[in-house]
UniProtKB/TrEMBL annotation:
GO MF entry, a single one: unfolded protein binding
Gene Ontology CC annotations of this record: cytoplasm
Keyword hit for Chaperone: yes
Annotated stretches, region: Disordered: 60-84
Protein name according to UniProt: J domain-containing protein
CDD domains hit by this protein: DnaJ, DnaJ_C
Biological classification of the source: Bacteria, Pseudomonadati, Pseudomonadota, Alphaproteobacteria, Hyphomicrobiales
Organism: Phreatobacter aquaticus
Any single biological process term in GO: protein refolding
């Protein structure tokens, strides 16, 4: 069962719209999945926070929740037997404090209706429970033999529609840059879904009322769309950071060079200093994935690629061997 939106955001019921917004932003920063990458429930808590803010940030929905018309998920609540409240004709409380209890029955003489009127003064006794059950029975359509529905089951809400979960595959760069993806629901309805920039594997989005239909008068279920990000041949995800192995020629590593390195936004020029060793890593700030607390970085690691074998290369290697004065593994 969903928690009270006020408790989720951590504000009092009398909180102003600005107080709710400030509290939401503070919690969103603390609960964001990027800040809780080792917590498997981080996404669920963040979704719960967003759902709560969706209700409390909307003045109409907030008032509906405060009046008990919708639940903590924003779904309409079953309100019982409407039409028998204050000031409504046909039962309940009449004007001037009078109480009208109407008795509807099917008997040998056919349909009968009578009423008991009380002024609400001192000493008046409420009608017996049988009269209350007669009112409930009279509200039914009636069955042969004068049988109505069971008063104890009449107030049971009809079941709401079931929620469904869909998984969509999104290309890595579309998820990293942000894109629009088409989703086809089991009903056949097609929707264009906005994928935010920086979307990670397992990101879940909620489509209200797009789940399985429900009984008449009850809300349909929701559809939850889970994003499966397709892997990229070069980029590896590390939280909000990205990592990339960059092939470099032997001469580029020895002499130094300007080389092109890919990023999710296009290629950039990277300067290699002379005598760059394989395994050296360069940090490109802000070239990682978008996140609520700022974009991540791209870490580019040099991988030296040897040229095709040749006599010249072998001679060069033997010259290096003769002149080498240190063991590259002496620190191990």
């Amino acid at each position: 069962m969903a928690r009270d939106p006020y408790d989720v955001i951590g504000v009092a019921r009398a909180a102003s719209a600005d107080e709710i917004k400030r509290a939401f932003r503070k919690k969103a920063k603390a609960l964001h999945p990027d800040a809780n990458q080792k917590d498997p429930k981080a996404q669920d808590r963040f979704s719960e926070l967003n759902n709560a803010y969706e209700i409390l940030s909307d003045d109409k929905k907030r008032k509906q929740f405060d009046r008990g018309e919708i639940d903590a998920e924003g779904k309409p609540k079953f309100t019982g037997f409407e039409g028998h409240g204050a000031g409504r004709p046909g039962g309940g409380f009449a004007q001037g404090g009078e109480t009208i209890f109407e008795d509807f029955n099917f008997g040998p003489g056919g349909f009968r209706r009578s009423s008991t009127r009380s002024t609400g003064g001192q000493g008046q006794k409420p009608p017996p429970m049988d009269d209350f059950f007669d009112i409930l029975s009279g509200m039914s359509s009636g069955r042969a033999g004068g049988r109505g529905f069971d008063p104890f089951t009449a107030a049971e809400p009809k079941p709401a529609g079931e929620d469904i979960t869909l998984t969509i595959k999104v290309p890595f760069l579309d998820a990293a840059r942000g894109s629009t993806q088409r989703v086809v629901l089991p009903s056949g309805e097609a929707l264009d879904l906005k994928i935010p920039a920086g979307t990670r594997e397992g990101h879940r989005m909620r489509l209200r009322g797009k789940g399985k239909p429900a009984a008449l008068g009850r809300p349909a279920g929701d559809a939850y769309v889970v994003v499966a990000v397709e892997p990229h041949p070069a980029f590896k995800v590390d939280g909000k950071d990205l990592r990339l192995d960059l092939p470099v020629a032997l001469d580029e590593a020895i002499l130094g060079a300007k080389v092109r390195a890919p990023t999710i936004d296009g290629e950039v020029e990277l300067t290699l200093p002379p005598m760059t060793s394989s395994g050296k890593t360069f940090r490109l700030r802000g070239k990682g994935l978008a996140a609520a607390d700022g974009a991540g970085d791209l870490y580019v690691t040099v991988r030296i690629v040897l040229p095709e074998p040749s006599a010249d290369l072998e001679g060069f290697a033997r010259l290096l061997q003769d002149r080498r004065k240190s063991d590259p593994r002496e620190t191990l």
